[in-house]
Amino acid sequence: MKESHKSDFRKSCIKRLEFSSRFSKFYKDKKTVKKLKRFIDINKSKNVLLYIPMKMEVNVLPLINDLRKKNINVFVPFMIEDSFKLVKYRLPLEKKKFGIREPKNSFCIHKKIDLAIVPVVGVDGVCKRIGFGRGMYDRFFYRLGYRPTVVFTQLTLCKVNEILTDKYDIQADYIITN
After folding, report:
1. Digit-coded pLDDT (tens) for 78-113
2. Contact criterion met (CB below 8 Å) for 175 and 153
3. Which superfamily is assigned to 2-177 in CATH?
């Protein structure tokens, strides 16, 4: 029962985000990125997990470029099997599974990430992530072995008051949207 509610909520959020991304996306991206920059500065984050955005997600590419200029280590997901590993952000990006762009695979010895900025499709009543339903972020954080500060980001907040998630779904410390 809970899974069908979660699936229905996911579908309605995706429709809302697709619609929202057609109108004033540039403004929403810019406003959200500005808030994310301020958050990173205030928290003095040095090792940050970000993502390569898809069309309906906040375009964090300007943020990635800004952080790299400030000598902040930027990591992005690189899909492997049922989850992903962290790789340093670098060009060129290649289109991979699910239409997601990634840098080339690299062996990466990195410090612990202190901040993870994670895109969401929706958020439930206890601030847990509703994603695309593949569980890659959930498995990644479970296998990470420690918990960095987690920030969810979204173009337009899509939240429900009821609890739709499971105990293994990742939870936000903060949500930043426009």
Report:
1. 777 776 777 787 767 777 766 676 666 666 656 689
2. yes
3. NagB/RpiA/CoA transferase-like (3.40.50.10420)
